[in-house]
Amino acid sequence: MSQKMSWEEMKKVYPDEWVAIIHPEGDLERPFGNIIGEVLCHNSDERLFTKELKEKATYQVIDMRFTGEILPDYPVGPILWQIFNTNS
């Protein structure tokens, strides 16, 4: 598995990409919170990212964020989702 990275490091290493973060730690209560975690997969193409994520997603919690700006004229911070596995 990859090593843990901060959100700031992820934005530098994977600019303008979707990232799936496993084993997240830090400010998980806020969608803009700074976290640390391992990148499970990443891609600038959302469709390819989703396909790869579906193949790899076996973890309880996965944070998905976009490292770029979704709305450059109205910056709202990173987009964040949490997926909870309900099969366990």
Structure description:
- By secondary structure, this protein is of the alpha+beta class.
- The longest helix is centred in the middle third of the chain and has 11 residues.
- The chain is globular.
Structure described in brief:
The chain is α+β, with helices and mostly antiparallel strands and 88 residues long. It is built from 2 helices and 5 strands, in the order E-H-E-E-H-E-E.
Main features:
88 residues, alpha+beta, 5-stranded antiparallel sheet, 2 helices, 35% strand, globular
Mind sketching the topology for me?
Elements: E1 5-6, H1 7-13, E2 18-26, E3 35-43, H2 46-56, E4 61-66, E5 80-84
Antiparallel strand pairs: 1-3, 2-3, 2-4, 4-5
What does the overall shape look like?
globular
Number of helices: 2
Tell me about the largest β-sheet: 5 strands, antiparallel
Approximate strand percentage:
35-45%
pLDDT average, as an integer?
A: 81
Helix vs. strand class? alpha+beta
Distance between the termini: 22 Å
Q: How many strands in all?
A: 5
The strands making up the biggest β-sheet line up spatially as: 1-3-2-4-5
Helix percentage: 10-25%
Q: Identify low-pLDDT runs.
A: none
Order of helices and strands: EHEEHEE
Radius of gyration: 12 Å
